[in-house]
Amino acid sequence: MPRPTTNPYLIMLAESIAAVPGVELRTFSWRAALLGRYDVFHVHWPEILVYGQSPLKARVRQVLTVALMVRLALTRTPIVRTLHNLELPSDVSRLQRALLVRMERQTTLWLCLNDNTPQRADREYLTIPHGHYRDWFAKYRWPEAVPGRVSFFGMVRAYKGVDSLLKAFRGLAGEVSLRAAGQARSAELADGLTELARLDPRVQLDLHFLSDEEIVEVVREAELVVLPYREMHNSGSVLTTLSLDRPVLVPANTVNDRLASEVGPGWIHQYESPLTAADIRSALDAVAGHSAAATPPDLSRRDWAEAGRRHYEAYLRAGELLAAGRRARARGTR
Prior knowledge:
Radius of gyration: 22 Å
Largest sheet: 6 strands, parallel
Structural class: alpha/beta
Order of helices and strands: HHEHHEHEEHEHEHEHEHEHEHHH
Distance between the termini: 45 Å
Strand content: 5-15%
Number of helices: 14
């Protein structure tokens, strides 16, 4: 069931799927997963199944994950996986990685969030674009931009490059300020960023979990949101920024090129790594006064009703693929 910390993407997706006539959506619990009745198992971040806040809890979850995969195999239940990340997480044990690899082998259908996701010949894929956040944030007050304000927001992980943003910002002259906000993945990462932030009094560092209202505040008060990820393929933070009508600076790649063409001119700005003060200055100069006067980003392809319908079609397709695979194996044993 959704919690205060649940990603809004999951909540809006669940609502859109549940709104499809004839569909009953059930949220995850270990009891329901192991003993309940359902036709499709849909997973987004499978590593959550094998993580735990202590070694004992992690081991218990890993045993439960084995039981779940056995149950899904015995009941011939297809697994549908949304590819938020291209690679398995690096901070897992060998046992956790082995379980995640086993689940990948058992997955029937893979859902991509954009057309540039690399696809393997031995897997079946469908693409369903990541939905927008306009309706989600509409109930909050949207403040005006603070002149010269640069912002970063979201879960702070090493690959998101917040350290590179703090270093680049130090070289930025003029009446500018930086607010970087979000919960740090580790105490070590938080300590390193705190030390960097102390070197520049124009930097405000807020290392705590952000409420939805705080996200709106951080994003809307920015003239420019900077997301200096070292790897960027699917980013809910980019869509959050665009849903709140703020321009964003991101690494240059094909995915961001396509998104820039989709949403319209002036909203997505790109840089060639590594991020520099000149990159930030160039983007700030380009967006000066833009968001207030420009046509809002075009997010029409990211309607949630359409996403719900297409997920339902994906679940039906997964059932067909699993059945076809069983028939093919049966023919091969005759």
